[in-house]
Amino acid sequence: MATYAKPESLVETTWLIARLDDPSLAIIEVDEDSSAYHKGHIPGAIALDWQQELHAPRRRDFIAADALARLLGNKGVSSDQSIILYGGNNNWFAAYAYWLFRLRGVTNVRLLNGGRKKWELESRPMDAEAVTRPRAEFRLGPGRPALRVFREEVVRLAREGQVTLVDVRSPMEFSGELLAPPHLPQEQPYVAGHIPGAHNIPWATAANDDGTFKSADELRALYEGAGVRAEDEVITYCRIGERSSHTWFVLSELLGHPLVRNYDGSWTEYGSLVDVPVETR
């Protein structure tokens, strides 16, 4: 049985439960908001609110590298610590944060395999009291801008057929039957459909029922079976870039594909562009 390309990018619940008091770890819960954290979280974990803390103010972008370093330091996270990220829904936003952290130059970061879901299924301890830590110093390493791709290059590569595009949205979003996930409003300021030539591999198909990632063999069969080869240049996208970060993690960190970038502009940007090709089916 094959192993993950970068097994150090994950930790298991059995590993973490034995190290909850380890001062060399900084456990961070990341979700779209902090409501789940305040109902109960892994003991010692601090919270990052994706909308309020990781977005740039007044524009659609992420906080800059220096702002991220200040944020982590103010939360009491030191660059000497190993960051363990986790969240709900198969680590949906935790994987988004992992990608952003690596993009901005955070090097010592890992995901809790299965995230909040597996922790709860195993009846692990939870704490409802918010955690505060003394301020620390956080220093970033070199950023990795190659993990991100912008619309001009996406449009060019798609027109030239020089890239493998992986649309990780649901089949109904891909086909144009829905404009957004079913729980969100369908009145959206963009057209329906997908980038021509994209492969539709929904992000959650990479996860088991307990939220953990499927085995390396299963993942390889899933993506190679859909036409995504290890030697391809790959761009992942979804609606706003968060689900595609999960697939980026699978392809880059677990399967070791060397040329994978996340298009965080995703369909909200591409579907709003004038005079670009769009397919539905």
What does this structure look like?
- This protein has eleven helices and nine strands.
- The chain has 281 residues and is of the alpha/beta class.
- It has two domains: 7-143, 3-Layer(aba) Sandwich (Oxidized Rhodanese, domain 1), CATH 3.40.250.10; 148-270, 3-Layer(aba) Sandwich (Oxidized Rhodanese, domain 1).
- The protein has a five-stranded parallel beta sheet. Strands 7-6-8-9 form a four-stranded parallel beta sheet, covered by helices on one side.
- The longest helix has 17 residues, at 88-104.
- The radius of gyration is 18 Å and the shape is globular.
- It starts with 9 loop residues before the first strand and ends in an 11-residue tail after the last helix.
Mean pLDDT: 95
**Total individual domains:** 2
Shape type: globular
Ends: how far apart? 37 Å
Question: In the CATH hierarchy, what is the class of the largest domain?
Answer: Alpha Beta
Under CATH, the topology of the largest domain can be stated as Oxidized Rhodanese, domain 1
Helix coverage percent: 25-40%
Radius of gyration: 18 Å
Tell me what the CATH architecture of the largest domain is.
3-Layer(aba) Sandwich
Number of H/I helices:
11
Number of DSSP E strands: 9
Order of helices and strands: EHEHEHHEHEHHEHEHEHEH
Strand order of the largest sheet: 1-5-4-2-3
For the sheet with most strands, the description reads:
5 strands, parallel
Which superfamily, in CATH terms, is the homologous superfamily of the largest domain?
Answer: Rhodanese-like domain
What portion of the residues fall into strands of 2 or more residues?
5-15%
Uncertain spans: none
> Structural class, judged by helices and strands?
alpha/beta
